[in-house]
Design goal:
Strand content: 15-25%
Largest sheet: 3 strands, antiparallel
Strand order of the largest sheet: 1-2-3
Structural class: alpha+beta
Number of helices: 1
């Protein structure tokens, strides 16, 4: 089994918990009550998304060659 790398974005929700999105997989979004739970749910969502792409013969993207930087701009 090959390894794939995915960047996940966790956004805190006002009512509690975290929404997780996976930029490399459009529409792959989930939720968890804690960071650990959110990451566990993200792993499951990614696995199901990838399984679906593979079953349909579609290419499977990943973030293995993506570099990420955070820029802080003065306002």
């Amino acid at each position: 089994m090959s390894q794939r790398t995915y960047r996940v974005l966790l956004t805190p929700e006002p009512e509690g918990g975290f929404t997780v999105s996976v930029p490399a997989l459009p529409g792959c979004i989930t939720y968890g009550e804690s960071i650990d739970h959110a990451l566990s749910m993200a792993k499951e969502a990614i696995e199901l998304y990838v399984e679906t792409l593979e079953a349909e013969g579609d290419p499977v993207p990943d973030d293995s060659k993506t570099f990420e930087y955070s820029l802080v701009l003065a306002s």
